[in-house]
Structures are given as structure tokens and as C-alpha cells.
Amino acid sequence: MTNHEDLKELFDRVNGWAMKRSPLVDRRTLQVGCPEIAARRRDGDVRAFFHVGHRPGKVCADAMACQLPENFLVGLFLHEIGHPLAMRVYKKTEQWDADRAVKEILGIHIRYGGPLVLEYVAPSVAARIIRV
Predict the structure, then answer these.
(1) 45 burial type by CB count under 10 A (0-12 exposed, 13-18 middle, 19+ buried)
(2) pLDDT tens track for 65-93
(3) Which residues pair with 93 in a beta bridge?
(4) Contacts of 23 (CB under 8 A, 6+ apart)
(5) What region does 13 belong to: left with phi over 0, alpha with psi -120 to 50, or beta?
(6) Residues 37/48, Cβ–Cβ less than 8 Å
(7) Residue environment code for 14-24, b if the CB has 16+ CB neighbours within 10 A, otherwise e
(8) Is the pTM of this model over 0.90?
(9) Protein fold of 4-130
(10) Would you kindly state where each structural domain of the chain is located, as residue ranges?
């Protein structure tokens, strides 16, 4: 991704795909530039790029996320979409609950890898999802 608008457009495609897959997925938008994520990164959490839950209808992002490969972004977006989905389905939303909801409800297996051990999906899966 080269800029915030590209990141938002990619998120919209992933969220739109998820909403088509299941009526349990809510429409969300991406808010780039979250002071809470920025604070976590300043405190040394190099894995902090996204979170959900403190702004209604939003997934928050740190601007540094623009540097991540597309298939990692898709995996991370799905993971964040999985949190409210898990709360709706399982009444809990730990990290593994979000991934489980994405697998069981949306049919996508989220993997972990790369130097930061981040969520990702196979490049072919990412391409299929964003081809809306």
C-alpha cells in the first residue's frame, strides 16, 4: 500500500467480501491514525497495527500498516473483523476466538508468520477476496 486511501479501499473490499459471505458481519470503516495504537508502538509493541472496539463501527489502524504486504493486510483485516463476529457468535473475543470465527463463519484460515509473526492469508486467498 502506498497511502492511507489505498489502505482504506483495501479494507472496504475485505469488509464487503466478508459481509457478502455472512449476514453476521457488520459494516465497518477503517480509521487510520489511532493514538492508542501509536502509544502501543511507542511503548515497544512492534506488532501493533490494528485494533477494533473502541470506536463504534471502526477498525483503527496505524499509518505504519501501509508498509505491510497485501496478503498480511487481508489477514489482519479479517482478524479484526473476526473480533465482533466472535463476540456475536461465541460471546467472547480473545485473539483465537476472532481467528476461529473467520475460519468457521467465513471459511478462511488465518495463519501467522513473517518476522513479526503477524496474521496473514495465502496470496491466492487475498487475491480472491479483494477481487470484488
Answers:
(1) exposed
(2) 999 999 999 999 999 999 999 999 999 99
(3) none
(4) none
(5) alpha
(6) yes
(7) bbebbeeeeee
(8) yes
(9) Zincin-like (3.30.2010)
(10) 4-130
